[in-house]
Amino acid sequence: MEQKYKKVAYYPGCALEGTGHSYNRSTKEVGKALGLDLVEVENWNCCGAMEVKNIDPKIQTYLSSRVMSIAANEMGFDTVMAPCNGCYHNLKKAEYDLGQDAETAEVVERLSTKAGHETYKAGQIETIHALDWIKDSLGEEGIRQRVKGGLKGLKVANYYGCMYTRPRHIFPEKDKGPGSESTLKPHYMDDLLAAAGAENVDFPLKTACCGGAHTLSDSDTSTRLVLNILRAAEASGAEVIATECPTCHSGLEMHQIRAEKKLGEKTGVKIVYFTQLLGLALGLGARQVGIHENVSDSLGFLKQKGIA
Amino acid sequence: MPIHEKSLIRPENLKTSGESLVIDGIDVSGHWSTFIQSRVVRDYDESMEQEIAALPGGEYIHRCWQCGSCTNSCTVNAINPDFNPRYWIYLIRMGMKDELLRDKDIVWQCVSCNKCTYACPRDVVPEGVMKATAHWLELKGHTAKSHSTVFDEIFSGQVIATGKIEEGRILRGFFRRTGQVLMQDWVVELVRRMIRHIPVGLLMRMGMANVLRPRTRGWGRARAALEEYVHEQEARHRKALGLDHPAE
Ligand code: SF4
Ligand code: SF4
Predict the structure, then answer these.
(1) Cβ separation of B152 and A212 shorter than 8 Å?
(2) Hey, is the C-beta of A264 within 8 angstroms of any chain B C-beta?
(3) Per the CB < 8 Å rule, is A49 touching B225?
(4) Domains in chain B and their CATH numbers?
(5) Minimal Cα–Cα distance from B26 to chain A, Å?
(6) pLDDT tens digits, residue range B205-217?
(7) Sheet containing A37-40: order of strands
(8) Is residue B128 a contact partner of residue B60, using CB atoms and an 8 Å limit?
(9) Domain ranges of chain A
(10) What ipTM, to 2 d.p.?
(11) In angstroms, rounded to a whole number, what is the distance separating the alpha carbons of residues B216 and A190?
């Protein structure tokens, strides 16, 4: 199969340089193992995360557009890959707003000119998620061929969160029938991990919200939302929750502990990035994909399963 | 999930008959002899909808046809039935400010999950309306700045200043400004579990990020342009809300 995204611009974003370090690391390692090249966007800036839009959505659009402008205009890429749901969402939203709203385009042009770089124009670059990157480049068959060891029937709940599918209108390529990603019942992560030998459980809260936007400013709400997710995963028979976003991932880790300390609610399900699971299935070492950096201690468990 | 609607049958609106109310020789006292006092609403705030529509996110509030899909799908509504986007949009469009102010301290709790935006058949973007309403309440002085707004300000301030953020700095700034103790028991536990396996190199790198703030090179001009834009917008919003005295 031809590798659709053989070489793409890579936008890790701020979280992957901090709490999401092991996501950054495992994404790069998996890329290497699969023969996919990542070229980091030069001198990138924050996309605005979930906060800047609350001050002004157009600033967020500008911030995201600058990243796309560098990747497209200065580096000549037609695809930029962002593994963080927040970055991915914001770049997609900027793309949509710039194409649909003349006022936004005018503000972004003004800010870009003053900041001294080329203005990003809608349609110059395609933003994809790490899931698209792997799935569309190799397909399930490609993964199956490269698996060494595999996930040995590990029971996984695939958790996609909010920003990967909502709101629908900023993801025009989704919901296009068989084969495309679904915004209601996303399945790309399920497909990849199944191809790597996992047994996906029937998990009802794939796109539920973990309260990430208020993880610190309204911790009690976030703890309750996360606890719902953890409990539902356990009730579905999952041993592991696979994540695809550093905010979701650290939110689940943090509030798993907070639920234990504040509410006396202990849950044992492990929280692991999907790229870490994929890496292990491809025969990479546990350290190589940063399993030891996760807060929910899964190393012993994965070893016992014969996966790590 | 059923849609919870707020009842206007509140204690202060009730008229109870007392022990023995006898009408035409019939004793009508008892639990059913309870009437809602008629209410006349005179205090419509006709500018409220326009003001909220003038803030970012509120633009499409006029499209709402009250179907209730937003409330029905809402993450926060599921854990607190008083959090009701459809109802608030109704109150705002009717200009029923006093009713809205009863819920002033929970509007900010919207977690931006966009389930409402996904479900809304009229593209109202209720998530945006929640943000605009929360800001309106703060700007008008009906509520103090929520923890969420404080966090947004610290975060955005750092992005505008340097182009990037550093999580540790944001965290400490937030706990300081909201007067919370940083080392709460669960934070201690989190850190304890985090550093159990983390290699020294990474810890040092995370420590260094505190000293050498990560920043985007040549950000100065972007910073100046963004700061100018923010001031411009702040002035615009204050004007739209009829606030003449300058921001504190
Ligand atoms: S879903 Fe949209 S149209 Fe329906 S009540 Fe909510 S905001 Fe109004
Ligand atoms: S974005 Fe806010 S209002 Fe909309 S469903 Fe989520 S929590 Fe509710």
Answers:
(1) no
(2) no
(3) no
(4) 6-36 (no CATH), 48-139 (1.10.1060.10), 147-240 (no CATH)
(5) 52
(6) 555 555 566 789 9
(7) A37-40, A7-10, A79-82, A126-129
(8) yes
(9) 3-128, 149-304
(10) 0.91
(11) 36
